[in-house]
Every structure is written in structure tokens, then in C-alpha cells.
């Protein structure tokens, strides 16, 4: 599968996604909740099914043919992920259930063993709960102090405030690459440089960036990066942690059990080499292999092509939303080409709760997100109880945006008439 143009990308790939052709409430599904989870192409679905039908066996533990085949496919997927984000070594890729588990792994393995009373952890007010709660728990146990970067007037990461906030006491900076609510793209490479200047480690939550444009961990120079497979066309239950090799080598195991050991005695154990030191127990084998298939699928399209096409959709989406006077949009505005932010729009509607809006749109077959999007601190900062979010992927079309906008206008008209 090779694509030479971005103009008709969605037309080329939609046949690969069976769910996009289903109906909801007797209307063709318009799926605009991609920031929550992506849909899965046939290549991924068939890869998962093929594992269970053709070579289902445990990995690393058997000498028989099925186990060897499963192990080869499982480890080949690790190689694909490493190449996808340009890790320096396959040993720097640790399979996890999701990005939340990956952050917790760093928090408990590194944080609990390196943070002292008075040490500082810098986050931002836009972080997903998964990048706040683990650090709250670690701070409570170690005496470390949490600090938060706020927003610029354009509702982006306030880099100047960050420069004033960081100090020699800062041991960790952990920041989202793309806000799942604001859609802003944070300057992670510059943040990494500043953090390292003060001797601090830097973790990137890349859940919203890895599926949408090229991510190069060596260029960013982050110490850790986390992502979830289910947001990048892979199954649920599989994600990964990237960590610099020497840093992962210095970290003790997070979970104990089978697979992560070298030798076990009654009074002590020795641990396996990376990355297996952090992968206790039977892993999500089929899901990991399918993650590799998802990486193949995205790579065959080309992440640059995906980004360019989604930018076109973003420009069009914002053009349409900005024509609706009742709508208030959050996060930075895209430029005329749709660049400068992610392919999602978070908004509120005057006089209408986001959940009511989402419910009525669903009746028209349009799936969007409503609520706090696992960013309650951000919503409190913005002074809103909830918001609605339409998030795009490369398989969405302008026609779907038109259906969404038409349904949104009709829904707002209904509420206006109902309240008058």
C-alpha cells in the first residue's frame, strides 16, 4: 500500500476500516472521537485474529514451533516500534498495557528511588490525569513538590513561565506533547533542553502525537516517552514506554514475577536484561504483534502524509466552527493551512451542556466526546464544567465534517427554540 497524495487519503483508506461503514441510529456513523481511541484497520484485526488462530503460544518460554513463531512476531513488533520513534536501541522499548501504566512505571521505579523531600516535579495545568495522579502519589510518599506551568493568552504552554519555574531543585519535568483538550503542540525539544540544563529528567506523554505526525525521540532528547497503542490503530491493552538505555538500566523492576528474572533463589533473585526486566508475566502477545501491524500500516501511508492531510481537515473544521456564533473554541487557532495545532476542536456552546450536545449529535450518527476529557484541572483553570470535542484522524473526510456541522447547527437551534 503506497500513497502518493494527501488530497484523497481518506478515500484510499476507508475501505480498510469496517466500523466506519456501520450505521448508528439508522444513520451512517461519523466517528469524530479519535483522541479517545482510533478505529482499527483490517490489517490489525486480521493480524490479531491470525495470531490466535495460527500460532497462539506463550513467548520466550517454549522450544516448540508455535512458541518460536510467537516470540519472533512479538519481538519483531518491538523492532518496528523502535524504528517508528527512532529509538537508538530495541532495548529502549518496554511493552506496557497503556501510557498510564508506562508513566506509573517511571513514577514508581525511578521516582520513588530518586526523589527526596524538597525536590521539584514540574507538570502543566493541561496534563491528562494519567500524568498528574502518579506524580501526586509519588510526591506524597517522597516529600517532593509539584509545580505547574500555566497557559499563555493563546492557551498554549507558557514557556516563559516554565523558564522562571524551573530551578536546581527540579528533578523531573513531565509534559504532554499535544494537549488532548487544547490541541496545542508543546515545544518538547526546547523543554527537554531547558530541563537537562538544570540536570532534570524529561518525560513526554506522546499519546496524541505519535498517531498523527513523525516523532523522533533522539531529536527531542527526552529521557522517557509514553504512548498507547489504541490511539494509533492498534488494539486496546497495549502501549509502550521508551527510555534512554542507561536510564532504564539504572531503574529497578516495577513488577515482579515470571519473565523479568534471570535467576530465582529462595532468598533473592536476579533480573533479566532490558527490556524484559520491566515485563513481568505473560504479556499481551497478540496485542503487541497487532501493534506492530498498526505501525506497519501507519508507516506504509507515511506519517508526513497523515499529518498534511489532517492539517487540511483541521483548517476546514475550524473554518466551519468559527461561523457558528454560539460556539467558543479552546486552544490556539490553526493557520490557513491547518498547521500550528492538533486535528481536534474542543468547544462549548452558549446555554447548552456539552453532554446534552453530544447526546443529540449521537442521535444523528455523529460521535464526539463530551465531559472533562480526563483534564479536570484544566477545565477548572478555564472556568468551565465540561466541553465538547471533535477529534479527527486520517480516515475522516470533509463530507463528515459537513454532516457534523449541519447536525451541530440543528442541535443548537433545537436548544434555542426549546429554551425560548
UniProtKB/TrEMBL annotation:
<dbReference type="InterPro" id="IPR015422">
    <property type="entry name" value="PyrdxlP-dep_Trfase_small"/>
</dbReference>
<protein>
    <recommendedName>
        <fullName>cysteine desulfurase</fullName>
        <ecNumber>2.8.1.7</ecNumber>
    </recommendedName>
</protein>
<comment type="similarity">
    <text>Belongs to the class-V pyridoxal-phosphate-dependent aminotransferase family. Csd subfamily.</text>
</comment>
<dbReference type="Pfam" id="PF00266">
    <property type="entry name" value="Aminotran_5"/>
</dbReference>
<keyword id="KW-0808">Transferase</keyword>
<dbReference type="InterPro" id="IPR010970">
    <property type="entry name" value="Cys_dSase_SufS"/>
</dbReference>
<dbReference type="InterPro" id="IPR015421">
    <property type="entry name" value="PyrdxlP-dep_Trfase_major"/>
</dbReference>
<dbReference type="InterPro" id="IPR000192">
    <property type="entry name" value="Aminotrans_V_dom"/>
</dbReference>
<keyword id="KW-0663">Pyridoxal phosphate</keyword>
<dbReference type="InterPro" id="IPR015424">
    <property type="entry name" value="PyrdxlP-dep_Trfase"/>
</dbReference>
<feature type="domain" description="Aminotransferase class V">
    <location>
        <begin position="30"/>
        <end position="404"/>
    </location>
</feature>
Amino acid at each position: 500500500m503506497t500513497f502518493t497524495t494527501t488530497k484523497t487519503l481518506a478515500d484510499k483508506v476507508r475501505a480498510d476500516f469496517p466500523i466506519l461503514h456501520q450505521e448508528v441510529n439508522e444513520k451512517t456513523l461519523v466517528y469524530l472521537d479519535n483522541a479517545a481511541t482510533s478505529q482499527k484497520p483490517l490489517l490489525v484485526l486480521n493480524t490479531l485474529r491470525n495470531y490466535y488462530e495460527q500460532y497462539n503460544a506463550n513467548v520466550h518460554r517454549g522450544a516448540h514451533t508455535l512458541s518460536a513463531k510467537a516470540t519472533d512476531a512479538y519481538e519483531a513488533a518491538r523492532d518496528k516500534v523502535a524504528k517508528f520513534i527512532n529509538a537508538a536501541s530495541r532495548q529502549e522499548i518496554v511493552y506496557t498495557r497503556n501510557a498510564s501504566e508506562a508513566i506509573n512505571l517511571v513514577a514508581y521505579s525511578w521516582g520513588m528511588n530518586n526523589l527526596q523531600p524538597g525536590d521539584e516535579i514540574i507538570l502543566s495545568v493541561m496534563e491528562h490525569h494519567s500524568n498528574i495522579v502518579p506524580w501526586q502519589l509519588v510526591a506524597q510518599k517522597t516529600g517532593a513538590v509539584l509545580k505547574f506551568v500555566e497557559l499563555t493568552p493563546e492557551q498554549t504552554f507558557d514557556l516563559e513561565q516554565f523558564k522562571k519555574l524551573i530551578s536546581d531543585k527540579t528533578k523531573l519535568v513531565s509534559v504532554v506533547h499535544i494537549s488532548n483538550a487544547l490541541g496545542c503542540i508543546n515545544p518538547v525539544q526546547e523543554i527537554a533542553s531547558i530541563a537537562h540544563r538544570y540536570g532534570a529528567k524529561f518525560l513526554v506523554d506522546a499519546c496524541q502525537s505519535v498517531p498523527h505526525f513523525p516523532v523522533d525521540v533522539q531529536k527531542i532528547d527526552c529521557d522517557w516517552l509514553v504512548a498507547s497503542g489504541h490511539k494509533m490503530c492498534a488494539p486496546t491493552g497495549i502501549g509502550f514506554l521508551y527510555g534512554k538505555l542507561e536510564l532504564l538500566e539504572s531503574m529497578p523492576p516495577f513488577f515482579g514475577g515470571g519473565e523479568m528474572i534471570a535467576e530465582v533463589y529462595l532468598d533473592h533473585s536476579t533480573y533479566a536484561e532490558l527490556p524484559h526486566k520491566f515485563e513481568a508475566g505473560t504479556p499481551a502477545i497478540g496485542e503487541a504483534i497487532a501493534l506492530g501491524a498498526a505501525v506497519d500500516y501507519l508507516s506504509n501511508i507515511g506519517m508526513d502524509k497523515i499529518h498534511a492531510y489532517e492539517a487540511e481537515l483541521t483548517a476546514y473544521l475550524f473554518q466551519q466552527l468559527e461561523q457558528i456564533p454560539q460556539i467558543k473554541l479552546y486552544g490556539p487557532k490553526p493557520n490557513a493551512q491547518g498547521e500550528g495545532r492538533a486535528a481536534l476542536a474542543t468547544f462549548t456552546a452558549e446555554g447548552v451542556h456539552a453532554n446534552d450536545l453530544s447526546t443529540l449529535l449521537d442521535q444523528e450518527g455523529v460521535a464526539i466526546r463530551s465531559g472533562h476529557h480526563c483534564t479536570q484541572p484544566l477545565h477548572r483553570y478555564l472556568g468551565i464544567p465540561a466541553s465538547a470535542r471533535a477529534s479527527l484522524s486520517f480516515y475522516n473526510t470533509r463530507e463528515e465534517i459537513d454532516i457534523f456541522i449541519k447536525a451541530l447547527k440543528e442541535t443548537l437551534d433545537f436548544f434555542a427554540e426549546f429554551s425560548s
